[in-house]
């Protein structure tokens, strides 16, 4: 299923434990009222808005891109898309995203600790 759409946070699982594992304070990354906007074409655009903070990453699948973490740090990585699952290796964790029945399922994994965020597509 295509990623293009705006998604509103529905639920999150194990976020606090994940944030602790990667050294981020809960106050620095509260997903409360998070909106995710994805656009899929030749280039992907992934924009996240939480309260008054917005960050935007653009990339082409299979090509090295410079991306930004939620904390504003830049890094280079090659984003992949296999079996409908988007994969981005951030400096401290692996991010995957896929769309299932109009829901965006995002998983962040740092070693044995994972957090799952489920957002529903806004119609």
UniProtKB/TrEMBL annotation:
Pfam assignment, any one: Lipocalin_7
Per its UniProt record, what InterPro entries does this chain match? Calycin, Fatty_acid-bd, ILBP
* Gene3D superfamilies membership: 2.40.128.20
> A single GO molecular function, which one?
lipid binding
Q: Which family does it belong to?
A: Belongs to the calycin superfamily. Fatty-acid binding protein (FABP) family.
Q: What is this protein called?
A: Gastrotropin-like
Organism of provenance:
Cynoglossus semilaevis (Tongue sole)
């Amino acid at each position: 299923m295509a990623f293009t759409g705006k998604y509103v946070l529905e639920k999150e699982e194990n976020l606090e434990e994940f944030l602790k594992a990667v050294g981020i304070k809960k106050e620095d990354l509260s997903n409360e009222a998070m909106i995710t906007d994805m656009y899929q074409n030749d280039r992907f655009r992934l924009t996240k808005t939480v309260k008054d903070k917005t960050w935007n990453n653009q990339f082409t699948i299979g090509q090295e891109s410079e991306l930004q973490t939620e904390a504003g740090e830049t890094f280079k990585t090659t984003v992949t898309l296999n079996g409908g699952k988007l994969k981005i290796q951030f400096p401290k964790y692996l991010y995957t995203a896929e769309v299932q029945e109009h829901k965006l399922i995002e998983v962040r994994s740092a070693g044995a600790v994972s957090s799952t965020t489920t957002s529903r597509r806004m119609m």
